Amino acid sequence: MALSPFHLAIPVNDLEAARHFYGALLGCSAGRSSKQWTDYDFFGHQLVCHETGAVVTDLPTNLVDGETVPVPHFGVVLDWQDWEALAERLRSFKVKFLIEPTIRFVGKPGEQATMFLADPSGNMLEFKAMRDPYSLFAV
Known about the structure:
The chain has helices at about 15-25, 80-90, and strands spanning about 5-10, 30-35, 35-40, 45-50, 60-65, 65-70, 75-80, 100-105, 110-120, 125-130. By secondary structure, it is an alpha+beta fold.
């Protein structure tokens, strides 16, 4: 079954900073835009940044495999090689990671590469890759 792209709209407090983060840093191409919002091709999905002036603060967290994971967060599951390339790209830009690129659940079903970072408005993102792409929902 082919997956359908998702649509996600998020608040940002500075649209120009969001354009730099999602465009220059992550390499997402911009689509339609106005003075208040911009669409992005977020790895095949539609992400819309709406300038609201809001800054996300004081997010709850959950302990996962020894790491403090921010909740809520969003992101995508990439192919392993694409995840490695993105991690290297972000390191080259000297991005501050909330959780450094790492491998989680080593040797278990669901083994995955993961990294967390925040956009300039405090929206939390996770990028992951599955060692076995068919184990995304493994129990």
